[in-house]
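seq:
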Amino acid sequence: MKLILFDIDGTLIHSGGAGVRAMTDAFEQLHGVADAFQGISLAGRTDTTILADAYEKSGLPMSPEHETLFKKRYAELLPAELEQPSHLRRIMPGVETLLPVLQDRDDLRLGLLTGNWEVSGRIKLVYFGINDYFPFGAFSDDSPQRDQLLPFAVERCKDMYQWEANGSDIFVIGDTPSDILCAHPHGAKAIAVAAAGYSIEDLRAYDPDYLLPDLSDTEAMLRILA
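struct:
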């Protein structure tokens, strides 16, 4: 049995900027600060740390109550932003073919390991019609530190399937250095995909176990998981 954990943005889907637009609008509506996320690094980070940077940049204090209010408003705004026209918005290459194949395998369990909060991450996946492939996962709600998320996904897999994955049974699939760096401390294998903002050369520098241009080669993925 193997546990396959997918990142969301840039790996499964591209929101076409819907996420950052909804976050920007939510912050402005709550605090009257425009463009609070301008210049803040987003790729591979958790929503909690991204939000903390926006508060710091705006000279405002952040509390758990602020985070809760922001998450609620962000989730309210995100569906409409996903409907806005964008040539970038799409399911990433190969995902629609790969997921049914993996789901049909009795020896694989699929989950999420993402920097999204769960509510917003699932809104994105529901929009693209792939949420049901992922009955559990680990999210920014669990920890602001990406490299601490994997054990949460393992525990939820154990609760759901009465099977506990160990390091060599776990594959983390993502498109950023953070996805590689959150796998290796736990002994998991990192499958890096250069389908979004990072190139093959960028990702190779972080020593992933496997490196692919995208997820369009289903047979290559099955060989890796074998």
